[in-house]
Each structure stands twice: as C-alpha cells, then as structure tokens.
Amino acid sequence: MTDPRSFHDQAVASFYHLGPADAVLPEMLPDVLTGRCCRGLACFAARQDDPQRWQQACSTAPALYCLGQCYAGPAQAGTDTRPTAHVFARESVLLANAVRGGVRDLPAYLAQGGGKALRAALQSTPSAILETVAASGLRGRGGAGFPTGRKWRAVADAINKTKYIVANADEGDPGAFSDRVLIETDPFRLIEAMLIAAISVGATQGFIYLRREYETAARVLARAIEQARAARWLGGHVLDSAYTFDLELVIGAGSYLCGEETAMLNAIEGRRPEVRLRPPQITECGLFDRPTLVNNVETLCAIPWIIKHGGEAYRQLGTADNAGTKLLSLNSLFVKPGVYEVEFGISVREIIDVLGGGLRRGHLKGVMIGGPLAGIIPPPLFDTPLTHEALHAIGCAVGHGGVIAFADDTSIAEIVAEVFRFGATESCDKCTPCHLGTQEISQAFNTGKPMTAQRWRDLVDALAATSLCGHGRGLAEFALAIETHYGEELCACLA
Ligand SMILES: Cc1cc2nc3c(=O)[nH]c(=O)nc-3n(C[C@H](O)[C@H](O)[C@H](O)COP(=O)(O)O)c2cc1C
Ligand code: SF4
C-alpha cells in the first residue's frame, strides 16, 4: 500500500512552480533560477526592449512570476543590479537607510539610530504601543489598506495565550520590488518592527515568509537574524527584559497565491497552500489554529519610525484618511525607474512625470498601479490622487504600489491575455470561475479566438460574485476597469 504521507507530500509539492518547499538554509537553496527569464507583467510591458529574452521567458514552463527586477525588464535571474532608491516625501519613514546605500549589519544599524524604538517599546506597555499605532492611522501596505492598529488590537485581545506574528514578504505582485529593497538594504528595521509587534500583541514566535525568487534577500535576512540572536534581540529575555521572542525565516517555492495570508499560513504549516475559508478570522484562529498577526513588510517597517516620533507625527504625512508614506516601484519603461518613497495624495501625473521622468519610448497607454489585480489608469484620469478611496472610485487600486507603465506598442487584447494567463496559472483552483473561467478568458485572448461579449460578461460576473479570495475578485476588478476605461478597444476583440 502506498504511504498516505507521500500523497500528502505530492499534493503539497505539486502546488509550487520552483520545487518542493523543503526547509533549507538560504545558502543551501538549490539553483533553480540562474538563467531563467521573468514573465512578470513589467517584463511583458518592456518585451520590445529585448525580444529574445522575452521569448525565452515565454518558452519556459512553468512561467517564472516574478524576479522583482521590474526596473530592468525584461529580466533574467543572475543579471541583477540593485534598484535606485529615492525619497520624495517631507520625512523619510522607510528608505533613509536604503538611500545611504543600505545598512546590513547590526552595529551600523544602531549607529544610524536603529534599535531606539525597540528600547522605547520595552520600557513602555503593550497598550501604549497599541494606542500609538492606532493614532498613527497606519493602514496595511499589502494591498487592502486595513487599519493596522485595529488588527494589532484584535490579536492582543485574543484569549489564547500562544500567538504568532508573520511578516508577509512574498511580494508576489509583478511590478513591485519595494519589499525586496527594504529587506536587502535594511533588514534590522523589519526585525525591530516584528519585536515591537510581538511585545504589543503578546507573541513569542514570529515567521518571515519570503518568496523563493528573492535569493539575495534570503541571505541578507538569514545573516541579520543570526546577528540579532547573537545580540540578544531574539531568544529568551530580549535585551534583558521579561519578553521572549524568536524568529524563523521560511522560504517559499514559487507560488503567487502564497502571498494571500491564509494560503501563506497553510504553506508555513507544510500543508497544500490553498486559501482558507473565513470566519474564523486569523486574528483569532490562524497559524496552528492560534491568534496570528500577519502584516506586510512595508507596513511593519513603518513601525520603528512611528514609535520613535509618535502616531501624530506620522498622521501629519499623507492625507487625512491615508496617513504616512508609501513606496512605489517604477518599472523600466520610465526614464527614471526605481523605488520611491512618496506621501499619499501625490497625483498619478506627478508619479509619472516628476518621479519617473515620463516614458522612455513611445506614448503612454496607461499605468497599472497595484499589480494585476487592479485596473489600468488611462491618461485622462492621471490627476487622480494616490489614495485608496480615489483609486477605488475609478476601478483601480493602490495595491502594493507597483507602477507599470504600458506604452502604445501594447494592445489591450495583449494585456488581457497576459493578465489572465497569469491569473489562470496562479489560481489555487478551489473556486470554479477562478479555476476554469480565468483559463477560458486566457485561452480566448491568447489564441485570438474571440469569445462573445455575453460570455465575457458572464465569466467576469461569476468571478466577482463567487471568488473566495482576492485573486478571483481582483481579476474581475481588472476586467471591469478595462471595460470602463478601454471599452472600445476591448469590444473590438470580442465577438
Ligand atoms: C492573491 C493574493 C496575493 C497576495 N499577495 C500578497 C503579497 O505578496 N504580499 C503581501 O503583503 N500581501 C499580499 N496579499 C494580501 C495579504 O493577504 C494580507 O492582506 C496582507 O499581507 C496583510 O498585511 P497588511 O495588513 O500589512 O497589508 C495578497 C492577497 C491576495 C488575495
Ligand atoms: S478565487 Fe481563485 S485563488 Fe482565490 S480561493 Fe478561489 S480559486 Fe483559489
């Protein structure tokens, strides 16, 4: 009889594109990337700049989404350069150390003022920290913009005594590389933030879930965790206090969906990383059925600044409902690609013209902010400010802040084909419209055999109404925004 355990292992392994998710040290990762080319959307937008490399990306199975080298697309693993980092805000909350060229050692981090927020938190109380985070108005940077203070409070108030915190470093949205920059240039900021979060919610164990494609980030983080442990930031009696906290780095195995928080928890537990049903919310019943705080890397990295300067100071940045700064990743079609720290409220036009310096070639067809689960903003709407509400009102999203410019050498049919190919490849296949509907749209647009307008309508409606998670719903939002802003071009591709 076959060992049922091997069925389980096969079911888990078959989910991933880059081999089984075995627990290995970063320096022992098998070489599954070298030479492979990225099929992410930013590389697609830049495909005319190196058609041969793009061809290679298209002929590789399974497709590689995405290397986080969108500033140099079309990208190939092993040919990486570090993106430039710029601050375009009154205060730098996030990128100060990145702009200095990076601070990867603990003594250097401390010399730049790092660690002060942790010491302040250790001398404060959990409820005072929770109040400061709530007062800051910080909202999650992983996409949904959920108020961070409310999430932390829910985990702090959960009854179970064993609690976990998880940093979501999966950064799956093609077009975004800002978490990668934060981790590679300032790893102790993330560790310090996780310690502060642990103190305030009462967690003793944390995990950082990092995407497999970020090998340099994996090495930098593993080394930083070792240094933090040696300096007694981690372990029992953190810096001689009564707190205990330890941290584990978990490296993915190639799956966009593992960025969705419940799928990610399944991945950390070694299960097949499908999306979990809610309720219960993970703040009550998350990792190993315990209350769990999941935050994006950028969200967490704002915490040391907030603790040092106060919630009110943070609220002074950005707009009334969208406090603080946001990182934007500008792709290679801009004259000045790279990662930018901006205040919320900046207009899309300023992002394109002032930060990006306009388009390097051709005419701008539109910009996609926030990844493939968001709409494309057309030129007539470039005065829209960067806030969750303003972008939502035009069918678009802040998302994770990847900014992909599309030039007029790319048609709407090609963009729909590529987004739905990605959507179908990365679906966890749990919901029928997401499993089969995305494939049908992808096939119709990739083979040039048009579907009827009614069939398109039915599939998009089903995706919007019945998807269990933001993957299917986001693809529907993308489709609806294309209908709204590029309706004429879309209609011309439908039968
Ligand atoms: C399909 C899908 C992919 C996601 N990928 C990511 C990701 O790569 N990184 C991330 O931080 N959040 C991602 N999210 C959002 C997470 O589920 C979760 O909301 C987020 O990590 C919470 O952190 P925050 O409150 O700090 O934003 C994804 C969501 C969906 C539906
Ligand atoms: S919407 Fe798609 S990715 Fe999300 S749970 Fe359903 S099948 Fe899985």
Write the layout of secondary structure elements.
Elements: H1 4-13, H2 41-45, H3 51-59, E1 85-88, H4 96-99, H5 106-111, H6 116-123, H7 126-136, H8 148-157, E2 164-169, H9 178-185, H10 187-201, E3 205-210, H11 215-230, E4 246-251, H12 261-268, E5 292-296, H13 297-301, H14 303-309, H15 311-315, E6 325-330, E7 338-343, H16 348-355, E8 364-369, E9 376-377, H17 388-393, E10 402-407, H18 412-426, H19 432-447, H20 453-466, H21 470-485, H22 487-493
Parallel strand pairs: 1-7, 2-3, 2-5, 3-4, 6-10
Antiparallel strand pairs: 6-7, 8-9, 8-10
Helix pairs in contact: 6-10, 6-14, 7-8, 7-10, 9-10, 9-11, 18-19, 18-21, 19-20, 20-21, 21-22
This protein binds flavin mononucleotide (FMN) and iron/sulfur cluster.
The site of flavin mononucleotide (FMN) has 21 residues, from strand 5 and helix 21.
Measured between the Cα atoms of the first and last residue, the distance is: 52 Å
Q: What's the average pLDDT?
A: 95
CATH homologous superfamily title of the largest domain:
NADH-ubiquinone oxidoreductase 51kDa subunit
Which sequence of strands runs across the widest sheet? 1-7-6-10-8-9
Helix content: 40-55%
Architecture per CATH nomenclature, i.e. the level-2 architecture of the largest domain: 3-Layer(aba) Sandwich
- Which word captures the global form? globular
Catalogue the ligands.
Answer: flavin mononucleotide, iron/sulfur cluster
Q: What is the gyration radius calculated from CA atoms?
A: 22 Å
What's the β-strand tally?
10
Low-confidence stretches: none
Can you tell me the number of structural domains? 4
The computed structural class is alpha/beta
Give me the CATH fold name of the largest domain. Answer: Rossmann fold
Q: How would a crystallographer describe the biggest sheet?
A: 6 strands, mixed
- Which strand-content bin applies to the residues? 5-15%
Our count of helices gives 22
* Assembly state of the chains shown: single chain
